[in-house]
Design a protein that fits this description.
Elements (H helix, E strand, L loop, with lengths): L2 E10 L4 E2 L9 E13 L2 E8 L8 H14 L2 H4 L9 H8 L10 H21 L3 H8 L8 E7 L3 E2 L6 H12 L4 E4 L5 H15 L5 E4 L6 H11 L6 E3 L7 H10 L4 E3 L6 H10 L8 E2 L9 H13 L14 H10 L4 E3 L16 E2 L2 E3 L12 H11 L1
Parallel strand pairs: 5-7, 5-12, 7-8, 8-9, 9-10, 10-11
Antiparallel strand pairs: 1-3, 2-6, 3-4, 5-14, 13-14
Length: 388
């Protein structure tokens, strides 16, 4: 089996919303297709992916650096030992050939799009969901058939009315969600506390509600928010400060007794090691949110899990940032704590398959071959246009 073409194109997110730092109306994502000479059901076998949500399309890195390396490689150099599948580990290593270590920025997303497409391709060849392929590949006892899920939203909308947040969360509740995450840090503390109080009219117990500052705060502000949030008993307080400010996270962990969440903007297992060693993370309490779609793919994510478990943390403390099908299959295949979901935003990428159903805070993981992009109609249309 040989890779014959790699096709990438940027698409825009259909979202005019903001967190504490970013307005997403101009954000893009790289759609990617890896085409092979292997025939399946009368057509060339194709692996599909994208580079998660929250960064930008990685067109130049993919098309000018990484894709040429893969297309110039010998077919045998990219195959598994049995020769019947393409190896995600070998694809990642080839994509990173001649790249210096460290500096894990945009290239991590470019590499992840390529590596993830191989998982989709292999799972389709196995006629199974990616989560099952992950579980077998990494010697797991099996995938989780259903996973805990929370609805991520509560952004700052242009011209936001006081009832918009409540209406949004009620909509998620009617879909079957019981836990939610909203944004803070885009307003002053008093206004954000009012948003939390409004959200709790839907969420009920504070343990059903997480808040996310998207790295907005300096140390003094993070501690001020921590003291104000402490009495609530929230599900977690996410990314109070810059993701690389481990001193801030550690200081906050000393005064905030609830769960802290971070890691979505860490892209390597070395970064995760530093977080575990120096970030004040507490075993059995805090939440790790590394996203395989932003951090070199499932291969590197497995290394991250090894780092955490080697230091006494449990993989059930991991809730990947993602909100889409890439992350859902990672949660199921690796046996993680739960999945973020974007049921109404960041389209056409956000959320799961059109036939996914939520009940009592859980979702059944799709049985469709691959990631199941073909069963999310708006996204399928984008991939069809890419392949056309």
């Amino acid at each position: 089996m040989k890779i014959t073409r790699i096709i990438e194109a940027p698409i825009a997110l259909r979202s005019n919303i903001s967190n504490a730092y970013v307005n997403f109306s101009q954000h893009t994502v790289s759609l990617l297709a890896v085409v092979t000479d292997k025939m399946l059901h009368g057509k060339p076998l194709v692996g599909l992916s994208f580079n998660s949500i929250g960064r930008y399309a990685q067109s130049d890195i993919i098309n000018k650096r990484m894709a040429p390396r893969l297309l110039q490689a010998s077919a045998d150099d990219l195959l598994t030992e049995c020769g019947s599948r393409i190896s995600p580990e070998k694809v990642l290593a080839c994509a990173l050939k001649n790249e210096k270590p460290g500096g894990h920025g945009d290239r991590a997303m470019a590499a992840s799009a390529l590596e993830m497409a191989i998982w989709d391709l292999n799972a389709k060849l196995n006629d199974e969901p990616v989560s099952a392929t992950i579980a077998r590949h990494f010697d797991r006892p099996g995938r989780d058939e259903q996973v805990a899920v929370y609805a991520a939203g509560g952004y700052y909308y242009d011209g936001e009315a006081s009832t918009k947040l409540i209406d949004e969360l009620k909509h998620y509740q009617q879909m079957g969600f019981t836990r939610y995450k909203i944004k803070i840090g885009g307003a002053d503390l008093a206004s954000d506390l009012k948003r939390i109080d409004a959200a709790l009219t839907v969420a009920g117990a504070a343990s059903n509600l997480a808040v996310d500052a998207n790295g907005r705060f300096d140390l003094q502000t993070a501690l001020e928010y921590g003291r104000a949030l402490e009495p609530y008993g929230l599900m977690w307080f996410e990314e109070a400060g810059d993701p690389l400010d481990l001193e801030l996270n550690a200081a906050l962990s000393h005064i905030y007794s609830g769960a802290l969440a971070t890691g979505e903007n860490l892209f390597s297992h070395q970064d995760v090691k530093n977080l575990a060693l120096f970030g004040g993370c507490r075993r059995g309490k805090d939440v790790f949110q590394m996203d395989p779609g932003l951090s070199y793919g499932m291969t590197e994510y497995n290394r991250m899990l090894g780092v955490l478990e080697g230091r006494g943390f449990n993989r059930r403390q991991c809730y990947p940032h993602s909100g889409q099908l890439l992350g859902l299959h990672a949660v199921s295949g690796f046996g993680l704590g739960g999945s973020e979901a974007y049921p109404g935003i960041f389209q056409p990428l956000g959320g799961f398959c059109d036939d996914s159903r939520f009940a009592d805070g859980f979702v059944r993981v799709p049985d469709h071959p691959g990631f199941g992009f073909e069963y999310k109609n708006a996204l399928l249309q984008e991939f069809q246009q890419l392949l056309a």
